User: Fold this.
Amino acid sequence: MTYLWQEERGKKFYKVQTDDRLVAKKMKRRNGFHLCGFATNDKLWIFNCQFRRPDIAKKTLKSITGKNAKIDSEGMFVYE
Assistant:
């Protein structure tokens, strides 16, 4: 699963968390995604990124994951 959330409402800073190795490899190769955290004994990667608008962020993650976003109860976008 891949999660996308905005760090602060109205700001252009986002975090992306994934447990999918293929998605993590794609984000490592893309400009604008910076690895900021990972799990040493599990599959988990967290990336920082910047987008001007939330719709651009959703569109970019859709192209990386190949899946549509759903909104969970906490307001995060989930790509399953």
Summary: The chain has a mean pLDDT of 91. The longest helix spans residues 54-65. DSSP finds two helices and six strands in the chain.
